[in-house]
Amino acid sequence: MSIKRNNFSSRILWRLYGYSARLLKTKLFRTAASNTSFPEVWLLLVQYFERVPGFFWVVQRNSFFTMPEILENKADIELYSPPPEVRGMTTLDRSAFKRTIVVPVLKVKKEVINKLLKSLKHTTLQRSGLKRVIDDPKDEDRRFVLLDPHKISAEYSLGESEKEILKQFSIDPQVSKYNLELTYDNFKTEEILRAVLPEGQDVTSGFTRIGHIAHLNLRDHQVPYKHLIGQVIIDKNPGITCSVNKINIIDNTYRNFQMEVLAGEANMITKTRENNNTYEFDFSKVYWNSRLSTEHGRIIELLKPGDVLFDVFAGVGPFAIPAAKKKCSVFANDLNPESYKWLLHNCKLNKVDRKIKIFNMDGRDFLLGPVKEELTKELSLLTKERKNTLHIVMNLPALAIEFLDVFKHFLDGKPCNTDLLPTVHCYSFSKHDNPAKDVQERAEAFLGTSLEGRCSTHLVRNVAPNKEMMCLSFQIPAEVLFKKQCTQEEYPVEPASKRLRPNV
Question: Helices 189-196 and 226-236, interaxial angle, to 10°?
Fold first, then answer.
């Protein structure tokens, strides 16, 4: 029982850690390439606190008249919900979203409008796409200032502080009401989808943005509405002209996936920026994940000028290109011919084409060929005085750990200094209660040695419920890397302080 309880606690801690990390990334490391909504429960909370019952009846369209001081009938109206008739719509009809609501207004002389708006900024209507000031058709010298119904009392009267402000401008404090027509353009994405999808079903309006493409992962209950959802995403996000949905998992050799165009143009060649670098590629033929921006930056921060980076599964260059810009020596490889083509293109685009050696090989062949050759050369040159470090990045989470057996007796001879052994950053998925332990143990099985006290694990992101993406970093142990073993006198063990610290 205690073991089950510990496993459960461990999983909860990992989930909380991952969620907190992602919140921090969203706040502190926001990228222009991605646009992901908060979880559904957060959305519900926000809407709950935003929605306060309205205190009026809808009357004649486009009419304007004075409210009584106290209203006897109070309709509980959700102001910014589209009309109920749109429920179940599968083909977008923008005209069906017209709705008239009643908002409180003040009648104000136009010459004091600007000063009044500054003084009443917390009371006026604040909603994107809606004007706070509209013309009075009966009096060209006056304007209507729209007030937020949620900020007005049940009696539709202003507070004492607001009345004092109006008194300073000689404005009649009497609050009136105005019938305001809302259209499709006035509703937010979440509001539209919540009104259209079956009541009580989850509404996910989040997506990943890659240049002009919005990439969605729709759930089963959303599929009947997929074309409508795709069009709404395009309509509500300037610059997006194409929305796509992934229709299978990444399970092929080249790490891309099948997708369908939901709405907009079918142009899959896109350009995006990440960490001050520009990448162009055919999104339908290569692997790209904007959610890894922070992780790419984290690894690059570990490098210093003169270091050597071997990128075994380089994709279109999110590790290789910034490393080359940092004046590292870079060897980048990818098996996918399309990734190789766009990697070459992006190196030229970012003006590092002369600083990166690029290969189109199987990852294992790349390790056994160019990496082995260059490591042998680099380790023979390294001394205690020349301490540029060697890094091997293996970002293929589904399979990378299975490549670690390549390093068993990888090199001949013996190391000159254990501090200079290459550091591996190996990515992996885990569904285990303790992902860090799981990834470490699987790596140890392929390496044939223990990494206890010699590795660190980093939670990259939560991929799906009960599925984490992890990064295991470690210096390849000398007893694994070299064929010839050293004696204790020839090869002293490095102090513990110089080893990578494991996660606690």
Answer: 160
pLDDT digits (tens, 9 = 90+) for 281-295: 999 999 999 999 999
The residue among 201 and 438 whose pLDDT is bigger is 438
Q: Which residues are bridge partners to 261 per DSSP?
A: 244
**pLDDT at residue 57 greater than cutoff 70:** no
Give the separation between CA 146 and CA 124, rounded to whole angstroms: 6
DSSP letter assigned to residue 83? P
- For residue 499, is pLDDT > 50? no
Going through 171-307 in order, the beta strands assigned E by DSSP cover 176-182, 207-210, 213-216, 242-246, 259-264, 269-274, 277-282
- 411 beta partners: 482
- What is the model's pLDDT at position 246? 83
Tokens found for residue 400: 């990378």
Angle, vertex CA 292, rays to CA 289 and CA 293, nearest 5: 105
> Would you list the DSSP string of 316-335?
TSTTHHHHHHTT-EEEEE-S
* Rounded Cα gap, residues 189 and 496, in angstroms: 54
Distance CA 141, CA 143 (A): 7
